[in-house]
Specification:
Elements lengths: L16 H8 L3 H9 L8 H13 L6 H6 L1
Helix pairs in contact: 1-2, 1-3
Length: 70
């Protein structure tokens, strides 16, 4: 007998940039600027730290397919 599932386990959808923004109650533009390293002049250190921590906790990964569209 084979002791493995017949189908792969259901995966949770990957969090999007907008999911991060919604969770933190900030704009998706703010999240985008923090993750791309822009906006240091007008995004507070506290907000920057919150975005980076949420991205880490939620395991945010940029979508490569979406990135190629930009």
């Amino acid at each position: 007998a084979i002791n493995r599932p017949l189908a792969p386990p259901a995966q949770q959808p990957r969090p999007t940039l907008r999911d991060l923004a919604r969770t933190l109650n900030v704009s998706h533009t703010t999240v985008s600027r923090v993750l791309s390293g822009q906006g240091a002049d007008f995004i507070s250190t506290a907000t920057r730290d919150r975005v980076l921590e949420a991205a880490r906790v939620m395991r945010y990964r940029p979508n490569r397919a979406a990135r190629t569209l930009a």
